[in-house]
């Protein structure tokens, strides 16, 4: 970096390397880089001789202008002055250029600045518990260009009604950036929403978060909004109280002339408050708010501004910022802005927030019918809408003053006395928008737009789902071994003769198939079962197991126990043959004799003396990617009533084995006429001529893979999205044929949907996604996590063990007693009720978080066991002994305690791998116990040592339990909890456990405390526990340090 910048600390211009040389011994390189970014570019210094140099080019004519120059020296000076005066326009531009843009450097960057003169002010604006805008301003090192450039700030939520005083921190998450029209460029205003700092949930009255979810759900409808915000300017009353007299009312308190001349009027005593309205309009434009107009309203002092058109969530953002700007404007006009629905009693109009709305189906030709359908849907949920349209709205919606009665719903064209007004132009042109006239001026725009979009989305989704179930679209292709002109002609004639419409057709060459990995994606589940998955990981349904026993004369469970089932890769190794040789043997098997189908893409065949899963895949890929080969595809479509999907596969296409295909089916014709069609060999189960989709869902997945079809533009795809299945779930999970929980067990998604018609397929998909809760590796079971905390405030768990046993049965099928017996071999450890409760909590959590059962130390159990001085054998792997202190039994052993505190159990537990370092933490606890009593303490004494350390936590019991409950509730609602969230939940659970143990000690009596005080261990700090994560290690180190040092 050769350019120079001014070091604020010294005021000198330096290069980056010079800056590094100066500060490298004081600051880290990252800090120096941030400091360099905050430095201003150095100005180029002009030399004093510069004017003389500029006159040198005229040296050739020096003899001519010399006298004139002397005579006109004054004039030349006069000409130079205007240029100097014009120069200030350049510094203004340079000042703008000097403003850094991008991400804020934060406090570390500010601390290194010589002054904050080049910084930017950002005013954060949000809604409090009552829906009133609040704001606070911060200094930033750069002007943000996007929301991610801004930091998450915080404020005292107890002062805004959004938190309690003992836990008051609320976060401000930036959502939109506006120019600051009050302070000017480069300062900004930031629209933010509030989130609880303790559980990262939307704070009280954060209505933006649920609104954003609805807008995201129905994003494909592209909703547009336009809101007409009416407001009334009022005369100031007492500080802190609502004003009662409108600005346009007489000074003596009497009412002005009846309404009539004030609407869109002009003149003194008519357009009352125009300076406020005009200034607000101007400032909104400067801020970047989408304000589209203003006008005076019916009552004196009453005005309206229009915001929009806005798309989706930005409607609420822009109206909220416009309201805030209005409040700022009235600060200097000696008036108050009121958004009350009925600011003045009597024969005066109220103030509304008419909401104009449309979605894409309304704006296209024929959209008027959609408008009518949505209006009808609004009428069915009129009460639910009124509840979201603002407080005291009943005072305004009386049936008078251009309103419809609050208990009545009606819609009409150009009817301002209706609940919903449809513009005359919409009726005339057959498309347009609708106006909901019910929201009051004080309504929350997020709540209004949310329920409008929700009702509209549900109304149109029903149509979309219905439309998606009316048509079948399938993907059919001729396999490489049969791809020639004769077969293409046969397939096309068969499809068209059955009444199917061919939407598209064409060739896909092997080079494209190989390059884009189309066949790998197509056979993704098949390939996984053949290569990566082991037989024990596969789910074979009971019905398939019965068919297996009938066909092979042996139970599936028996061959699994005997180790006779292999995937294709392992099967080839077992037989000592190559993958191609296995493929040839597998292809020779006949369905019903040597091979059985368990499900879609799931086959088991008997090769020699073993059973091989999907052995055909090993040479399948090479058939599609061999040079010179190709497939020929057809994208076909037909009405559902024309042919059920089961007949399309069973009668038109034919079963997998062409030899058993019905007469006239495609596979039967290719099988019987293979020689006449020019095939090299007769088709078999693997090479059966033609492939076709097994269900409408599988057809969509195949068309997206092979033809790059768009889900959002496909009728069936729209139906899936309208059924509430997120697009990422479809493309990243469901298209890969995952195992899903349905009807009491895990089943293949493709198998569940096989041969279903489109409508039934959509219905079942909706049921599956509802039961799966969004699917995903970390999908939660339907269990109430709050039950886990119900007994934490009771001395012994408050009988919550029974409830935990019920949860254990749900998540793992085991009772708490069975879990204790399996994980706690030593019966004496199960005597303590608190520890039993702790164990149950940890096991339940492990069940709720799949794939974590083998890592319960991740949930903090290792620290708990260290506190009890015990080793929990969760792993069945042999223990790694580390000297004489290695643990091989639940008893505590150490070099300084030659005898165990109690004799080992008669039934020795299996060797296990300790969850923590036996050579450090156990030795420390043992040393502390020995110092306390001269010998190794028993479990009871260790418990006393531990509980004394946790005694100071009693004062924070309620707060910790509340935080833990909130965190677990948050995790339960998440589809994919982050590792950080799991760690936080583990830490909070750990603190709850400490509180519970302390409560258990208190229950047993205070006499133990005095005994513990007389046996104080020496102040020795143990080695840090080994927990594998910095968060748990840090917490464990603090606890361990307090345990031995106090």
Architecture overview:
This protein has 1046 residues and is α+β, with helices and mostly antiparallel strands. It contains 42 helices and 26 strands. Strands 9, 10, 11, 12, 13, 14, 15 and 16 form an eight-stranded mixed beta sheet that branches. Strands 5-4-8-7-6 form a five-stranded mixed beta sheet, covered by helices on one side. It has a four-stranded antiparallel beta sheet with strand order 18-23-17-24, sandwiched between helices. A hairpin with a 5-residue loop joins strand 4 (120-127) and strand 5 (133-140). Helix 15 packs across helix 28 (715-722) and helix 38 (939-949) crosses helix 42. Residues 46-97, 774-840, 842-958 and 996-1046 have low confidence and may be disordered. Belongs to the glutamine synthetase family.
């Amino acid at each position: 970096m050769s350019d120079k910048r001014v070091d604020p600390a010294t005021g000198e211009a330096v290069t980056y390397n010079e800056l590094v040389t100066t500060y490298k011994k004081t600051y880290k390189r990252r800090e120096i880089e941030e400091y360099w970014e905050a430095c201003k570019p150095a100005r180029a210094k002009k030399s004093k001789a510069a004017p003389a140099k500029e006159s040198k080019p005229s040296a050739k004519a020096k003899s001519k202008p010399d006298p004139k120059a002397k005579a006109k020296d004054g004039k030349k000076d006069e000409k130079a002055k205007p240029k100097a005066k014009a120069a200030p326009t350049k510094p203004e531009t340079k000042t703008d250029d000097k403003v850094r843009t991008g991400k804020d450097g934060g406090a570390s960057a500010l601390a290194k600045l010589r002054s904050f003169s080049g910084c930017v002010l950002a005013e954060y604006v949000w809604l409090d518990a009552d829906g009133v805008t609040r704001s606070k301003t911060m200094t930033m090192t750069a002007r943000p260009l996007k929301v991610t450039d801004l930091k998450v700030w915080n404020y005292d939520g107890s002062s805004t009604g959004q938190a309690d005083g003992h836990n008051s921190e609320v976060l401000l998450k930036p959502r939109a950036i506006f120019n600051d029209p009050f302070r000017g460029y480069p300062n900004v205003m930031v629209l933010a929403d509030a989130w609880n700092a303790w559980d990262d949930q939307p704070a009280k009255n954060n209505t933006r978060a649920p609104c954003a979810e609805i807008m995201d759900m129905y994003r494909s409808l592209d909703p547009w909004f336009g809101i007409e915000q009416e407001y009334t300017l009022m005369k100031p009353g007492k500080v802190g109280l609502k004003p009662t007299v409108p600005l346009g009312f007489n000074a003596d308190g009497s009412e002005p002339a009846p309404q009539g001349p004030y609407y869109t009027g002009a003149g003194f005593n008519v357009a009352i408050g125009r300076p406020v309205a005009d200034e607000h309009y101007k400032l909104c434009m400067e801020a970047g708010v989408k304000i589209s107009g203003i006008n005076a309203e019916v009552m004196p002092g009453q005005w309206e501004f229009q915001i929009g058109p806005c798309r989706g969530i930005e409607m609420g953002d822009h109206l909220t910022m416009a309201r805030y700007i209005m409040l700022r404007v009235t600060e200097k006009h000696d008036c108050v802005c009121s958004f009350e629905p009925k600011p003045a009693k009597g024969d005066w109009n109220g103030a509304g927030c008419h909401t104009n709305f449309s979605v894409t189906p309304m704006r296209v030709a024929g959209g008027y019918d959609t408008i009518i359908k949505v209006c009808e849907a609004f009428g069915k949920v009129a009460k639910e809408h009124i509840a979201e349209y603002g407080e005291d709205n009943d005072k305004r919606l009386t049936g008078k003053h251009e309103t419809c009665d609050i208990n009545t719903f009606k819609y009409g064209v150009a009817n301002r006395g209706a609940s919903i007004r449809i513009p005359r132009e919409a009726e005339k042109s057959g498309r347009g928008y609708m106006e909901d006239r019910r929201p009051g001026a004080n309504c929350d725009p997020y709540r209004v737009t949310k329920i409008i979009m929700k009702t509209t989305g549900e109304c149109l989704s029903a149509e979309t789902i219905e439309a998606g179930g009316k048509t079948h679209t399938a993907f059919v292709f001729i396999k490489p071994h049969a791809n020639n002109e004769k077969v293409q002609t046969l397939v096309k004639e068969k499809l068209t003769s059955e009444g199917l419409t061919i939407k598209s057709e064409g060739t896909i060459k092997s080079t494209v198939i190989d390059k884009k990995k189309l066949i790998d994606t197509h056979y993704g589940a098949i390939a996984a079962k053949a290569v990566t998955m082991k037989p024990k990981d596969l789910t074979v349904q009971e019905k398939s197991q019965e068919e297996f026993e009938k066909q092979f004369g042996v139970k599936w469970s028996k061959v699994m126990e005997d180790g006779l089932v292999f995937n294709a890769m392992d099967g080839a190794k077992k037989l000592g043959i190559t993958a191609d040789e296995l493929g040839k043997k597998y292809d020779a098997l006949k369905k019903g004799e040597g091979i059985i189908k368990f499900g879609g893409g799931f086959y088991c065949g008997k090769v020699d003396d073993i059973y091989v899963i999907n052995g055909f895949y090993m040479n399948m890929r090479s058939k599609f990617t061999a040079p010179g080969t190709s497939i020929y595809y057809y994208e076909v479509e037909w009405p559902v009533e024309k042919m059920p999907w089961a007949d399309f596969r069973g009668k038109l296409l034919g079963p997998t084995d062409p030899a058993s295909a019905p007469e006239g089916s495609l596979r039967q014709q290719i099988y019987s006429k293979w020689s006449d069609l020019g095939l090299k060999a007769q088709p078999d189960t693997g090479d059966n001529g033609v492939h076709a989709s097994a269900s409408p869902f599988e057809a969509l997945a195949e068309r997206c893979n092979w033809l790059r079809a768009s889900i959002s533009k496909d009728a069936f795809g729209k139906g899936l999205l309208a059924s509430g299945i997120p697009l990422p779930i479809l493309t990243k999970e469901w298209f890969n044929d995952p195992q899903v929980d349905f009807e009491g067990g895990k089943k293949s998604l493709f198998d569940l949907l096989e041969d279903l018609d489109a409508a039934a397929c959509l219905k079942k998909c909706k049921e599956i996604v509802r039961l799966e809760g969004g699917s995903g590796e970390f999908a939660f079971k339907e269990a109430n996590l709050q039950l886990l905390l119900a007994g934490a405030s009771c001395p012994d768990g408050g009988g919550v063990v029974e409830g935990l046993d019920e949860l254990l049965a749900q998540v793992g099928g085991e009772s708490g007693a069975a879990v204790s017996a399996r994980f706690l071999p030593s019966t004496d450890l199960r005597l303590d009720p608190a520890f039993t409760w702790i164990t149950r909590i940890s096991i339940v959590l492990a069940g709720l978080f799949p794939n974590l059962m083998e890592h319960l130390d991740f949930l903090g159990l290792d620290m708990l066991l260290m506190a009890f001085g015990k080793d929990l054998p969760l792993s069945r792997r042999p223990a790694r002994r580390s000297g004489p202190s290695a643990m091989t039994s639940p008893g505590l052993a150490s070099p300084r305690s030659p005898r165990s505190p109690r004799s080992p159990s008669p039934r020795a537990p299996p060797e296990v791998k300790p969850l923590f370092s036996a050579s450090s933490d156990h030795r420390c606890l043992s040393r502390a116990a020995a110092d306390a009593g001269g010998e190794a303490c028993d479990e009871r004494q260790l418990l006393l040592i531990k509980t004394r350390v946790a005694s100071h936590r009693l004062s924070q019991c309620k707060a910790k339990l509340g935080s833990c409950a909130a965190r677990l509730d948050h995790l339960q609602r998440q589809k994919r909890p982050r590792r950080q969230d799991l760690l936080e939940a583990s830490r909070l659970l750990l603190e709850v456990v400490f509180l519970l143990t302390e409560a258990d000690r208190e229950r047993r009596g205070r006499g133990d405390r005095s005994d513990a005080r007389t046996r104080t261990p020496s102040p020795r700090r143990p080695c840090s526990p080994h927990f594998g994560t910095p968060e748990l290690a840090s917490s464990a180190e603090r606890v361990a340090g307090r345990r031995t040092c106090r």
